[in-house]
Amino acid sequence: MSPESFVMKAFTMAEIKNYTMNFGPQHPAAHGVLRLVLEMDGEVIRRADPHIGLLHRATEKLAENRTYLQSVPYMDRLDYVSMMMNEHAYIMTIEKFLNLKVPPRAQYIRVMFDEITRILNHLLWLGAHALDVGAMTVFLYAFREREDLFDCYEAVSGARMHAAYYRPGGVYRDLPATMPKYEITKNRNPKEVEKLNANRQGSLLDFIEDFTKRFPKYVDEYETLLTDNRIWKQRTVGIGVVDPDRAIALGMTGPMLRGSGVEWDLRKKQPYEIYHKLDFDIPVGKEGDCYDRYLVRIEEMRESNKIISQCIDWLRKNPGEVITKDNKVAPPKREDMKEDMEAMIHHFKLFTEGFHLPKGEAYAAVEHPKGEFGTYIISDGANKPYRLKIRAPGFPHLAALNEMTQGHMLSDLVAIIGTQDIVFGEIDR
Asked: Rounded to an integer, what is the distance from CA 158 to the centroid of its chain?
């Protein structure tokens, strides 16, 4: 080799190739079990391939071997941040089959807890999204409010998260007249306990009303920390932009669709329960970026708070039944079972064999915090579904991740995963 050619070879730049790397499932910003295979050009993402299925628990298949009532607790564990909302879609599908009339009080209770659940979901989303892009304080603030709402869950169902509170024809039981109270321990002196129990002296409705009065101030605190924060805006403005036509084509729903400027909300467009009687607005974005989706969800929390207040007012004035009297679907009262043999048989049959749905198919959906959550049931006339299909809102959003991240930096990927509000319980099912 001549000296000239040797020098030329030495100074020729090596051809730069894209390299492949794993993002997650161990990464703290991968929200549980997301594995992304990224094709990187330096720090720029050229392709993002989501690998799912690491949290698959066969919920749809398990439902084929359980009575309709036994599948209710499985719904809580799908999107485990919006527990009662998942139950609601499933229960509504069963009620559609049976043409069940739900008592008005039960409808208001359901809507109130749907909106409590929406706030619960958005608080976790806000805390985790902010933490992912480097804001620690918001996470701690958001969890402070979640504790109060978990106490509401626990008061009606006995469980802080997986409530199994909604039932075909209504809800499990009426709202309690008292709230659980903190007790004096070696770590809590009487003065502390008195302060903690100050808003727990009345009923659950009193406790929720106290929360609705405090909550707008808390949302203002989140906005003070983030909305005009220079670093937050640098990390979210212009990131993960989806235009309205593309958002519709990709099957986006919920804040992901409304953030792109499409005013679509099932509570207004296809009202269910008593939403048509309530006064609330649908927040809509303009730019379709992470920042607009943040603003949409913040405003949704304020609107949910308004809906909860309206439900409280109605529930105070209107006592009544909270579940259907049809004992083929809902259990009879305890006192009836002690005196009436027929009631005892109804109870026994309901919890052993369960009820049968007529042959056919039905789909019902709710405006879930993440989008349209629906369940589609095919019945062959038995006491369990022939087939259950769950329409998870996060699934099409995750499918759009590749398109949303192309051309962005690796650090922007974390903000885009955060803005999608991904929970894998519902995606993997």
From this structure: 20
User: Is residue 57 predicted with pLDDT exceeding 90?
Assistant: no
Read off the pLDDT of residues 225-250 as tens digits, 9 standing for 90 and up: 999 899 999 999 989 899 999 999 99
CA atoms within 13 A on the CB side of 101: 5
**Which residues touch 378 (CB under 8 Å, ≥6 apart)?**
360, 361, 385, 386, 387, 388
- For residues 58-73, give the mean pLDDT: 91
Token pair for residue 204?
């659950």
Give the pair of three-digit tokens for residue 77: 């564990």
What does the alpha-carbon distance between residue 170 and residue 273 come to, in Å, rounded to a whole number?
11
SS3 347: helix
Residue 339 has a pLDDT of 86
Alpha helices in 36-136 (DSSP H): 59-63, 72-76, 83-98, 104-132
Residue 366: left if φ>0, alpha if ψ -120 to 50, beta else—which one?
Answer: beta
Whole-number Å distance between alpha carbons of 150 and 372:
23
Question: Apex CA 218: angle with CA 216 and CA 223, to 5°?
Answer: 95
Average pLDDT, stretch 342-353?
A: 85
Phi, psi of 335 (to 5 degrees): -65, -30
d(CA 394, CA 37) in angstroms, rounded, equals: 19
Provide the mean pLDDT of the chain. Answer: 89
Three-state secondary-structure class, residue 186: coil
Give Cα separations from 198 to 82, 125, 179, 180, 194 (angstroms): 28, 29, 11, 12, 6
**Integer Cα distance of 225 and 239 in angstroms:** 20
Q: How far apart are alpha carbons 164 and 288 in whole angstroms?
A: 35
Query: Tell me: the pLDDT tens digits for 396-418?
Result: 999 999 999 998 999 899 999 98
Alpha helix (H) ranges present in 197-326?
204-226, 230-236, 244-249, 255-258, 266-269, 290-317
Q: Which residues contact 295 (CB under 8 A, 6 or more apart)?
A: 227, 283, 285
Q: Which two tokens stand for residue 4?
A: 């000239």
